Amino acid sequence: MKHRWSGAGIGVVIALALLIAFGGIRYDGFLGSYNILTVLRYNSMFALVGLGMCFVIMTGGIDLSVGSVAAMASVVSAYLSPYGLLPGLLGGVGAGLVAGTLSGLIITKLKILPFIATLAVMLAASGTGLLLANNQSVAVSYDSAFTTLGQGNLLAAFKPEWIDGDNAGWMGTALGLFFNFPTPAWIALVAYIVGSVVLNARPFGRHVLAVGGGEEASRLMGLPTDRTVFAVYLISGGLAGLAGVILAAQFGAGQPIEGIGWELFAIASVVVGGTLLTGGKGSVFTTLAGVLLLGLIFTILNFENGMGWISLSAYWQSVVRGAFLLVVVILQSRLARTAPA
Amino acid sequence: MANEPLLSMHGIDKRFGLAPALVGAHLDVLPGEVMALIGQNGAGKSTMIKVLNGFVKHDAGTIQFEGKPWAAASPEVAQRAGISTIFQEINLIPFRSVVENIYLGREIRNRAGFLRWRQMTIAAKTLLDEFGIAIDVEAPLGHYSTAIQQMVAIARAVSFNARLVIMDESTSSLDDHEVQVLFATIRRLKQQGVAVIFVSHKLDELYAVCDRVTVMRDGRTVAVASMAEMNKLQLVATMLGRDLAEVRKQGATAFSASARPPGAEVLAVENLAVGRRVTNASLNVRRGEIVGLAGLLGSGRTETARAIFGADARGGGEIRLNGKPVTFTEPHDAIASGIGFCSEDRKQEGIIPGMSVRENMTLALLPALSRSGLVDEARQRKIVERFIADIGIKCSSPDQPIRELSGGNQQKVLLARWLCMNPELLIFDEPTRGIDVGAKAEIQKLIRRLADDGLGVLMISSELEEIVEGADRTFVLRDGRTVSTFDRAEASEATLMDAMAHGTAA
């Protein structure tokens, strides 16, 4: 696959690199493995939701339901967690797939605009989650392996002893990052690799971009437009469900009131990643960069507070994120204009 | 006319990046004159217009309007200063009323700042009356035909006290009757002393309405003459920059007669009904022949084609493919049975603008080009390169975005898209619309070549010479019914027009 960096896509990568460099220089421990792994662990949920959103937006659609679907899925998986890791996982993902199916059917069969259709599903999922959970959080069972989905490190069991030793050196640090890589981050990483292959090398991925670039043109050349649109909402729902599973596993409880604003965070990540809101153009890995960029802002604020000079309220993160969103988007539109077409 | 020119553009240079778009181009328009501006795609007509109305800034040259230097910063400024442009795609707001569309941006308000609806409504009515249009001005603009919308756009332009109106391919979406109405409007403008720059690909129209013609080629002005001094052939020859003898040899189109007798029937349509537009259409196509489908705009040609292709549901009738009755609910089914369809609306229904030539050609073929679920890019490239060479698509590389190609080359890519699926029947809806003269001839030759290779071709065209010279047989639709059929020998512009205008079902 010949990869051409588009002018728009590289903007977010530059911004991310600058932010990491800024944090690394300014704060002790910012580039330490503990901080890196914490950031990755926490943001893996958002990465999954962002990946689904990326596919939806590439068709020219939007999925407002992802936050409440994740919340509902976290409740479902929490209830199923006593039966083991797999039932919890499948239950949460299944709940997400049901919601995605609903959105997809409303959009393709009833021809309702995605904004309205997923708004309806968002409300329905939110209500369902609250009903199931009786308006409170649902504790996850720690007897089964379920919580490792959020809290575990997939390869920790294979970790050689010497890595944690005092004189392990940089080799030890690097391998430590590898063996201590959080399970949810592995899940997100695999999802992005699969997503990238699907987008770039499978007919379905090209059809997604074609539908976003011109739906009627796609239909008239015989592409399965309805099936493609249906599938992206199914994917988005499934990934939101998976994010919900990780949410429950990570925080030890199904959280029916979590997920508020996730959809906007996901949309922002996708847009920052250079994917056109009108569809037809996009990239999976720049979306990941967008998620990390917006996620890191939260971390930076924490570090800034930790230095003790000023005390910034957590609400500032929204303001800063908003500013960053604007800056990166402006940067991108400038880059896109100067880049050779 | 010995008076001073209203507009005079001289020595205009413009470069986009490294490519020169205009090289010392000039254009003079006298007051009250209708000036035709013609040239192939890329000749510089639209850049010239954009320079004039302030869309782009020229690099060198002088522009004088009404004796004063002219420098419009934007189309809005140009409009207020007396030069209005009517674009091919009407840029008014279909959901809003006619009144609002006429007064948008300069609404009549009372002292408190509220809108004076009554006054605007009356003024809008009076304005349209001047153009001989009596419509309900409070209805949404989108309720009216393209022609009426076009008139409203012109009325809006004139009500800005325009002294010069530019019409950029204004007739391309109008039917014959609507064109006549537009021409009447142009003549009325002339009487009021308003000058018009008229851009069109259709030569007949130029002779019907224009006084003089400015011909552009490769960014230069190559000829300025009165319409009476130049015949069609000279005009085409000047535009193409070719020898007159060569053009004459080609005739009006590049179609030749079919090389061999037609084969078995591939498509038969009987008593087709679609929505309200098509009530009783019948036609058939045999292998190796080009069948023309003629009719005025609104006669149901496109609707018939779309129903055959499964893009729209049919209300009644029968469609047989190779003798077997078929029902397609989606284009996908029709394509699987060997039908291809080139839409008249290339931008919306043909190309995916942001994607490359390669992807546009092979999108529908990807499943077949995949091995274990992954697209086999080497095979894809091989096919694409073969077609680019075979049908002469001009692009810098297969990875060039299709939107950067000229209309003719886009059409060729779409044609290749179908050809790589090995169809038995191809339907063309206005295959050469909006395509410059040179590429037009190439497309026409290609269509004939496909028919000679044994494909059945159904071709819709509004250009009579295309039907007369290209089609082996022609079906004429009128008000949604097939009213007559002509063999090649019987078809002439006169017989076709008679059938379109007066034909009744046998």
TrEMBL record, chain A:
Its main location: membrane. It holds the Pfam family BPD_transp_2. The chain crosses the membrane at residues 6-25, 46-79, 85-105, 112-133, 177-199, 229-253, 259-277, 284-303, 309-331. It is a multi-pass membrane protein. GO terms for molecular function: transmembrane transporter activity. It is found in: Cell membrane. The keyword Transmembrane applies. The keyword Cell membrane applies. GO terms for cellular component: plasma membrane. Keywords: Cell membrane, Membrane, Transmembrane, Transmembrane helix. PANTHER family: ABC TRANSPORTER PERMEASE PROTEIN YPHD-RELATED-RELATED (PTHR32196), RIBOSE IMPORT PERMEASE PROTEIN RBSC (PTHR32196:SF72). This is ABC transporter permease.
UniProtKB/TrEMBL annotation, chain B:
It is a peripheral membrane protein. Its main location: membrane. InterPro entries: AAA+_ATPase, ABC_carbohydrate_import_ATPase, ABC_transporter-like_ATP-bd, ABC_transporter-like_CS, P-loop_NTPase. It is found in: Cell membrane. Keywords: ATP-binding, Cell membrane, Membrane, Nucleotide-binding, Repeat, Sugar transport, Translocase, Transport. Residues 7-243, 247-504 form the ABC transporter domain. The keyword Protein biosynthesis does not apply. Belongs to the ABC transporter superfamily. This is Sugar ABC transporter ATP-binding protein. The lineage of its organism: Bacteria, Pseudomonadati, Pseudomonadota, Alphaproteobacteria, Hyphomicrobiales.
